[in-house]
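Q: Please design a sequence for this.
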């Protein structure tokens, strides 16, 4: 994918049971090519969620099953950027970002208790949009991307476990 064509994020994966909304920035090239959230094999997202949920089979499950298992536990996925230009997949290369209506979307989820930001860029964009409503908790997570290698997977997992506190 080249940077002269805007890259567009995916539709949300949520339902009426969503209690935790995990917001990324903008899908990387591998995810866009596959049409799946967190499709790059070196991205730790599915491993992290499997560990958080006590579901180690989540990592190797078919994508539709992965999404179903997240929804069954009250977890939704979306991105703070609707489209942008980027060479490659690094968040630092995103330009001409078009933000999504995160506050309006969050308000449409009746059971929502927390928004978890997958990485620093998602947190900066998301917090700027949402502000600090008393009705929601915010969780800043280290990026699940392998490009964020300063923290090992086990260190990331310690932070990601906070999501569990909001699940039924």
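A: Design:
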């Amino acid at each position: 994918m080249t940077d002269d064509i805007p890259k567009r994020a995916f539709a949300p994966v949520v339902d009426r049971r969503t209690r935790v909304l995990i917001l990324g920035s903008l899908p990387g090239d591998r995810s866009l090519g596959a049409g799946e959230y967190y499709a790059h094999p070196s991205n730790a997202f599915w491993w992290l969620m499997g560990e958080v949920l006590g579901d180690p089979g989540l990592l190797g499950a078919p994508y539709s099953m992965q999404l179903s298992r997240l929804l069954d536990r009250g977890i939704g996925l979306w991105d703070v950027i609707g489209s942008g230009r980027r060479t490659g997949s690094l968040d630092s290369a995103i330009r001409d970002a078009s933000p999504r209506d995160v506050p309006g979307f969050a308000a449409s989820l009746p059971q929502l208790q927390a928004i978890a930001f997958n990485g620093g860029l998602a947190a900066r964009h998301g917090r700027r949009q949402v502000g600090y409503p008393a009705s929601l908790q915010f969780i800043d997570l280290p990026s699940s991307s392998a490009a964020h290698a300063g923290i090992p997977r086990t260190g990331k997992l310690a932070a990601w476990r906070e999501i569990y506190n909001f699940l039924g």
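Q: Thanks. Anything notable?
A: The CA atoms of residues 49 and 55 lie 8 Å apart. The longest helix spans residues 120-130.
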